[in-house]
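lol ok so funny story. i was supposed to be doing the assay writeup but got distracted and ended up predicting the structure for this chain instead. priorities right. anyway since i did it might as well share w the group, maybe its usefull for someone
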Amino acid sequence: MGRPELILLDEPTTGLDLEARRDVWVAIRDYHANGATVVLSSHNMAEVEELARRVVVIDRGRIVADADVATIRTHVATRRVSLRTAVLPSCSEPSA
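and the output, tada:
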């Protein structure tokens, strides 16, 4: 296969245990350090933070963000939970 200058990886560590994931991360970093470009798609923010220099977020086929990891992180650090219901469920104390 040689050493292509560009590789595309789609969720490369999905399903791997922690040790295997770290091994793949080391291999990706080494490949990049030797001059290759690595394009990685991932839903795993830890993986993105560990490997990426630049992040492009795509939503429904549109680029909604394109920046470095720290900048992207400022946009996703806030979490929001929404609940829409006509009637709220009753809350009771948990049993001991």
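The chain has one domain: 6-76. Residues 18 and 66 are 28 Å apart (CA to CA).
back to the writeup now i swear
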